[in-house]
Amino acid sequence: MTDDAAAPALTGGALTRSRILDAAARLMSTAGIVRTTTKEIARAAGCSEAALYKHFRDKEEIFVRVLHERAPRLAQAVTELPGRAGDGEVAGHLREVVGIAVRFYRESFPMAASLFASPELLAAHRRKLVPGTGPEVPTRHLADYLRAEQHLGRVAADVDADAAATLLIGACFHRAFLDLFFDAAATSGPQDDERFAAGIVRAALGGIAADQH
């Protein structure tokens, strides 16, 4: 099946909404959310600001929808993960999530970082978050998956699932931060991300303590 058959061309309001999100993603990734205005987004999308407000309440809602619809689908991947316990290989599931997480943080970090320069905007964004959609969610779902695998005997029973999930997601965030800081994001390809995912998952599953036996 071709992409055209799977996703019919957008028209009307759906097309306008898609163009708004595309424009917002471009602008927010370069200028950040604080410096990007709805007027600039509308202009870049080729529509009026009034048309923009027909689809979104405010800039914060646009930002959230960009993260959910234009960034790699991290939330979807981790939400589905506990239901995959017992299927396939644990390492394979973890590598997949790590790969998506690195791409998600690499793309979303430039947009989200400027939130911390505006305490008022950050507080407003925090208030508007729908329960179950905050930045802590990927770690929580990943921990739930590890616990599910523990019940099946595929992850050691004495492993702290919350700590392991935090280490994995934290490593992804750190990788994305360093890529952006050293301007390596433009040169990091799929193979680099695959090697990183394989190494992080191998370290997490194997542990770092020397064998004392």
TrEMBL record:
InterPro entries: Homeodomain-like_sf, HTH-type_TetR-like_transc_reg, HTH_TetR, Tet_transcr_reg_TetR-rel_C_sf, TetR_C_Proteobacteria. It comes from the Bacteria. It holds the Pfam family TetR_C_7. Gene3D superfamilies: Tetracycline Repressor, domain 2 (1.10.357.10). Residues 14-74 form the HTH tetR-type domain. Keywords: DNA-binding, Transcription, Transcription regulation. Residues 37-56 bind DNA. PANTHER family: HTH-TYPE TRANSCRIPTIONAL REGULATOR RUTR (PTHR30055), MYCOFACTOCIN BIOSYNTHESIS TRANSCRIPTIONAL REGULATOR MFTR-RELATED (PTHR30055:SF238). This is TetR/AcrR family transcriptional regulator. The lineage of its organism: Bacteria, Bacillati, Actinomycetota, Actinomycetes, Pseudonocardiales.
